[in-house]
Amino acid sequence: MADISITTNVKWTDLFGKKHRFSTTYTQASLTDIELRDLTIAADATRTLWDPTTDATEAMSTFTGCLLLSDGNLDGEMDIDSAGDVGREQNSFRLVDGLPYMLGADDAYANHSVGNAFGGTLDVFERIRVDEPATAARKLKTLMWA
After folding, report:
1. Which domains does the chain have, with CATH numbers?
2. Cβ contacts of residue 115 below 8 Å, gap of 6+?
3. Which residues pair with 28 in a beta bridge?
4. Tens-digit pLDDT profile for residues 106-118
5. Of the candidates 6, 4, 8, 37, the residue with the CA atom closest to the CA atom of residue 140
6. 40, 51, 74, 120 — which has fewest CB within 10 A?
7. Is 129 helix (H, G, I), strand (E, B) or coil?
8. Using one digit for the tens of pLDDT, what is the confidence trace for 50-60?
């Protein structure tokens, strides 16, 4: 069994010069799989990072955590219920240069009503993709665990 621990330290100075900070540590034990990938996302290209529904070689069919870290801005997409069992949803997000993007589960709501993203059916992510919208290739680290 494996484990993972992520420590976050945040420090800032407010507009009046007062210094602030907080720290937190997330730990998950008894993991059965941890997968680290170092990827290159070509300029002006879209790349699938994870899709166990179409890739039989995908080592992890589900995850309990995911961390993405890029050396430049990327657009991300999470596809929930791409098979259309309850109602496909696609959500986008922005990966910012040097700022880790983390998911603590592979769940999200699909088939929700207008104006209420929590009223649908809890389903799992079925695909994660990123897009490099500019003209420079980017390096991306992905860490997934289950």
Report:
1. 32-145 (2.60.120.770)
2. none
3. 4
4. 988 888 777 888 8
5. 37
6. 40
7. strand
8. 988 887 666 68
